[in-house]
């Protein structure tokens, strides 16, 4: 899948904020390519399996795991914010950590605080809508190809965090509460993403809207795939376990990010 690559046709320099320093800011996010979507989906899978592995297999507990992941996320995010251009290793490290942390947020709400998944889905949807609305009012764009200021990057990462929490709630609601099952859930979410791609390529639907819809849906897709691979057969999974699944996907992510880092070219300054 490679939707929204054409959003880069809109020059980020045209949307650069007035307070951006020339020759200082470069776009801080990657090109939207097939590799982008592969890594993103795998990071969501790792978010699901790694959260379960740390919380239950290692008996760290959800609260303690959330604290640890939260501290790591803040540290890596600060490192990412200090960058002046897109660096694959820093960017994708933040995405993986946000995936784990976002999963834990929803799991704590569901398992510890007993918040119904439909309610979590509604709350996260409203929070995401508010974030997008405020972002647009302040910056007049939601395009990820115009992340050329600190303010825009903060909006971006806040939206990403909420999409992961929202995607987790939606995925668990469909696969578990509705008893759809992990395999069929993956088919459902994969089909929705395919429909978005068709809407974008065939019917020229809004690129920014299609990107964010696809970004949200890759979370439950990756989570469903992760659960399908890691959960025992008695629960509808294939029984590979959280350890093996997490390691395999982390190795693939590491290999792809290393490849992107090696082939990275100097970017245009906005």
Automatic annotation (TrEMBL):
Domain of life: Bacteria
Pfam families reported in the protein's UniProt record: DUF347
Residue runs in coiled coils: none
Segments traversing the membrane: 56-79, 91-109, 115-135, 155-174, 180-201, 208-226, 238-262
UniProt keyword terms in alphabetical order: Membrane, Transmembrane, Transmembrane helix
InterPro entries: DUF347
Region ranges (Disordered): 1-22
Protein name: Membrane-anchored protein
